[in-house]
């Protein structure tokens, strides 16, 4: 009698195992399209439908964020005049803003997106952005702007920008390259439009009125954030719509598959909530059935390649409980500093940032020093931003050809940009300043367009987040601390030419470090 019961138990377990494998094979049918599988796994539209609404919302938000950030050079000359401040104190506003943005981005990338969805962070960032400009409109000194403009707006940028990039990556798969390019191009377009717009506002309403209007414009970031539906929204909607069909199918297949289906949905939600966790159905090796069924017997369902394991725990009542052991990745891997290629990129990104992001903030002031009026000086930022847009598109096309290593493309662009900036004493008229703005705008931001794929080429996906965080920290420290030093340099020398000497030297030195890879 005992032998018959044991044989019956073995048959039951084998039948359950076959049902499990059949269930998973249906969910990983290779005949379905790539987008259909991704959409079924994540539960939200991929490359279609509401994904395009999300992309438009993200582009508008980046348009406003990057546009206002790159237009600081227009505001910089007004702050010096209105508050009777020197270049050093006014430069601290920009430096502290960069510092806040960089360190805030690290927090959001490493921890924030694990706590709340992207929509929450974008909305909070939009609120910070709005109150930053609103409170700055009531500023009576440059020191007050350290808090209102630098801290609040810098925090708003940090809380909004990284979640926006993550959201676009979540809603797009096959068209991710197109979506990302459109997203970053909207930032250049924002700088192209916002600089002359801010100049017009300053001419009509002074600093107070202009910042008040920009605050109202910046509040649209909150509206953009509201459009970013979190992926669990679709998971819940899908589960509710398919509840009756699931119930009817699980009545035929028994409680085992019912339990498995529920936990499969939990896997989907887990996948959607944390990009570091990748659960792929269909990568199953074997099903090991125990000869006897006890209270806590475990049947191994699959053993994926990334050391994540799911098992079924059979209890006395005959039900099955899915136990999943998810291998958690380390937040930070210090071994990235042993990679010499990464160290070269880190040096170029941090030191080179002096010649990448800072010059545009001083370009109008430099032009006015050469006798250009305020309105024409503001148009130089528009010209530079348009050239930046063309440069990003061009370098993206060239890098995809893969005839030249991306790291060398960055080095070449830094040489050109560095030389052009070091020739600043020769730009005495408006035509030469237009030429400088075009060449600088076209070549200076190649590294901004390529550091994402270069990082992936060097380190791969596993260490991408921690490597990116180090870049952000280095950028924040170097650029944030250098801004007041550059202002001091102008106050001591009496001209912005010395500042552009420093910017150009930073790019030339960074290019030499990148080219040193040829010798290794």
Mind explaining what this structure looks like?
The protein is mainly alpha-helical. The chain has helices at residues 2-27, 34-42, 50-70, 72-82, 87-115, 118-136, 142-171, 176-218, 220-226, 231-241, 243-253, 255-273, 340-351, 359-369, 374-401, 406-422, 430-444, 446-459, 464-493, 497-515; strands at residues 297-302, 309-314, 320-325. A three-stranded antiparallel beta sheet has the order 1-2-3, covered by helices on one side. It is globular.
Blueprint of the fold:
Elements: H1 2-27, H2 34-42, H3 50-70, H4 72-82, H5 87-115, H6 118-136, H7 142-171, H8 176-218, H9 220-226, H10 231-241, H11 243-253, H12 255-273, E1 297-302, E2 309-314, E3 320-325, H13 340-351, H14 359-369, H15 374-401, H16 406-422, H17 430-444, H18 446-459, H19 464-493, H20 497-515
Antiparallel strand pairs: 1-2, 2-3
Helix pairs in contact: 3-7, 3-8, 3-9, 4-5, 4-8, 4-14, 5-7, 5-19, 6-7, 6-8, 6-9, 7-8, 8-15, 10-12, 11-12, 13-18, 13-19, 13-20, 14-15, 15-17, 16-17, 16-18, 16-20, 19-20
Strand order of the largest sheet: 1-2-3
User: DSSP strand (E) fraction?
Assistant: under 5%
Any low-confidence stretches, pLDDT <50, length ≥5? 23-36, 248-327
- N-to-C series of helices and strands: HHHHHHHHHHHHEEEHHHHHHHH
Spatial shape: globular
Total beta strand runs: 3
Structural class: mainly alpha
Please report the distance between the alpha carbons of the first and last residues. 75 Å
- Rounded to an integer in angstroms, the radius of gyration calculated over CA atoms is 28 Å
Share of helical residues:
over 70%
Helix count from the secondary structure assignment: 20
Biggest sheet record: 3 strands, antiparallel
Mean pLDDT: 76
């Amino acid at each position: 009698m005992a032998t018959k019961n044991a044989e019956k138990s073995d048959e039951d377990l084998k039948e359950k195992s076959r049902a499990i494998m059949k269930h998973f094979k249906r969910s990983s049918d290779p005949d379905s399209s790539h987008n259909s599988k991704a959409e079924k796994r994540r539960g939200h539209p991929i490359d279609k439908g509401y994904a395009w609404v999300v992309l438009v919302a993200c582009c508008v938000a980046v348009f406003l964020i990057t546009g206002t950030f790159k237009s600081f050079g227009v505001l910089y000359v007004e702050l010096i005049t209105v508050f009777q401040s020197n270049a050093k104190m006014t430069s601290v506003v920009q430096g502290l803003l960069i510092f806040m943005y960089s360190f805030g981005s690290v927090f959001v990338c490493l921890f924030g997106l694990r706590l709340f969805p992207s929509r929450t962070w974008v909305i909070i960032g939009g609120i910070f952005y709005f109150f930053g400009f609103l409170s700055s409109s009531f500023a009576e000194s440059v020191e007050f702007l350290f808090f209102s403009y630098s801290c609040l707006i810098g925090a708003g940028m940090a809380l909004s920008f990284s979640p926006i990039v993550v959201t676009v990556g979540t809603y797009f798969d096959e068209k991710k390259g197109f979506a990302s390019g459109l997203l970053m191009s909207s930032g250049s377009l924002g700088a192209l439009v916002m600089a002359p717009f801010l100049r017009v506002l300053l001419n009509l309403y002074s600093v107070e009125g202009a910042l008040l209007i920009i605050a109202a414009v910046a509040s649209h970031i909150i509206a953009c954030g509201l459009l970013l539906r979190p992926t669990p929204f679709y998971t819940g909607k899908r589960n509710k719509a398919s509840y009756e069909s699931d119930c009817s199918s699980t009545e035929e297949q028994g409680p085992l598959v019912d339990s498995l289906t529920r936990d499969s949905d939990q896997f989907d939600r887990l996948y959607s909530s944390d990009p570091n966790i990748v659960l792929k159905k269909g990568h199953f090796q074997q099903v090991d059935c125990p000869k006897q069924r006890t209270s806590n017997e475990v049947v191994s369902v699959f053993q994926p390649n990334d050391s994540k394991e799911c098992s079924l725990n059979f209890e006395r009542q005959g039900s099955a409980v899915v136990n999943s052991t998810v291998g958690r990745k380390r937040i930070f891997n210090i071994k990235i500093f042993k990679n010499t290629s990464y160290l070269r990129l880190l040096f170029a990104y941090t030191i080179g940032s002096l010649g990448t992001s800072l010059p545009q903030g001083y370009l109008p002031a430099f032009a006015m020093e050469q006798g250009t009026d305020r309105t024409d000086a503001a148009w130089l930022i528009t010209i530079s931003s348009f050239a930046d847009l063309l440069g990003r598109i061009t370098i993206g096309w060239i890098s995809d050809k893969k005839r030249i290593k991306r790291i060398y493309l960055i080095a070449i662009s830094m040489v050109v940009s560095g030389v052009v900036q070091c020739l600043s004493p020769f730009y005495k008229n408006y035509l030469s300043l237009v030429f400088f703005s075009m060449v600088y705008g076209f070549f200076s931001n190649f590294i901004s367009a390529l550091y994402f794929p270069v990082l992936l080429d060097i380190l791969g996906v596993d260490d991408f987040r921690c490597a990116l965080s180090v870049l952000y920290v280095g950028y924040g420290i170097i650029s944030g601390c250098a801004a007041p030093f550059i202002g001091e340099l102008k106050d001591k020398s009496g001209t912005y030419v010395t500042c552009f000497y420093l910017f150009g030297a930073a790019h030339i030195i960074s290019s030499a470090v990148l080219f040193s890879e040829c010798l290794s």
